[in-house]
Specification:
By secondary structure, the protein is mainly alpha-helical. The protein is built from five helices and seven strands, in the order βααβββααβββα. It has a three-stranded mixed β-sheet with strand order 2-4-3, with helices on one face. Helix 3 packs across helix 5.
């Protein structure tokens, strides 16, 4: 090992933490069907997603069982949380029920439904909690990603980043590292700000769609398990 460095623990926190109960395909999907194994794999991936496990551990979320909603059962719903986590149902298949919806979009739906473990309906406190959960996943994944680039801690040599563009010299030629460093930094910061703003607008639109397609409003799952068709 390099002098002045120490080993870094690469074990993911909560790796043995399992907040989900049984993973179940829809009852109408025969275990002998090729789709059955794919449904189980998809839902299992969600239940073992490091970001999901992270927020479940932070907030002590528990889910009795995780299963699916078929497209024609409740066409307007993408997710449903029954009795504060007793069962969570997610629409994971495409409209023809033969393919599968985008994983990250479904994961956002799962985060939304997990927030209903604590808050029913969609009052301001729900929106705050849901935003907090997504931010915690993003921070966790960013930290994990940074960890893949540096497996040691301490004073180590880190080469400077290569120049992204060439600047003009006094003779009109191009040379690496040319240009005004402060201007380059400002331009990079502006690009990051624009990307962040566009990302936030996209996520806000996605969250509005998820909320409108959520069946976990107050009264959607009462003590006797009664459900209403929409949580918007």
């Amino acid at each position: 090992m390099l002098r002045g460095t120490k080993a870094r623990n690469t074990t993911q926190p909560g790796s043995s933490f399992s907040p989900f109960g049984p993973i179940q395909a829809h009852p109408t999907t025969s275990p002998s069907s090729p789709l059955h194994a794919k449904v189980i794999d998809y839902l299992t991936r969600l239940s073992r997603d490091p970001g999901i496990l992270h927020i479940c551990q932070l907030h002590q979320f528990r889910v009795g069982s995780l299963t699916e909603l078929l497209p024609w059962e409740h066409p307007n719903l993408l997710g449903l949380n029954e009795n504060a986590g007793q069962r969570i149902l997610l629409r994971i298949r495409t409209d023809n029920a033969e393919g599968f919806r985008d994983y990250k979009t479904t994961r956002r739906v799962l985060v939304h439904e997990l927030a209903h473990n604590k808050v029913a309906d969609h009052p301001p406190e729900f929106k705050i909690l849901n935003s907090e959960l997504n931010a915690q996943i993003e921070a966790f994944e960013r930290k994990q990603q940074d960890g893949t680039h540096a497996l040691v801690e301490g004073d180590v040599y880190e080469p400077s980043a290569p120049a992204l563009s060439a600047g003009g010299g006094s003779g009109g030629g191009n040379r690496l590292g040319g240009g005004d460093p402060s201007r380059n930094a400002a331009s990079a910061e502006e690009r990051r700000a624009q990307i962040l703003a566009a990302t936030m607008r996209r996520l806000e639109r996605e969250e509005q769609e998820i909320e409108q397609s959520c069946g976990s409003a107050a009264g959607a799952a009462s003590q006797n398990g009664r459900r209403t068709p929409s949580g918007s």
